[in-house]
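Student:
Attend to each token:
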Amino acid sequence: MEQDQKTVEQNAQAPVAEQQQEDKGKESPNTGDLIAESKKYRTRAQESESLVQDLQNQLKEIEDKQLAEKEDYKTLAEKREKENAELKAKADIGEALEKSLRADALESIPDEDREFAEEMSTDKLLKFSKRYNLQNVRTDESVAKSSATGGYSSALEWVTNDPVGYAKEKQGTGLKSKFGNIFNPSGDS
């Protein structure tokens, strides 16, 4: 059995060796063909390298154009930044003014009602404080002074209670004098 295996191996190796020799015979190259093929590959490589160089130059030009455009954007961005700074300054002034108005309005409201007013927006708070302060000013027309009697029920009462005020009001002669109608308080002739 061992001999059969050796024979099979030798027979298998023999055709492989013959094929290699035949391939060597076929490979005996024509140097002219190889040189032509080499030149062809060399020109392709050179063309590819020049194409790559051209594309790289185009990319650089595109980047330069974009940078030029970015410079415009940079200028635009600088303008926007300046405008934002001005608007921010105005906004800060507005906020300070609002805080001041709010503080003044809260001060004008008594402590007992301040807890309701603190949660209001500034506009509502200002309206509330105006209304609240108007309510505190009470007028009583029944007590209003009459210009004819200085706020008293009669001229005699006026003279008795406020002689200086009466004298000041009744400067002149005749009925407009200080004693013009003192003896006739009703004004009947």
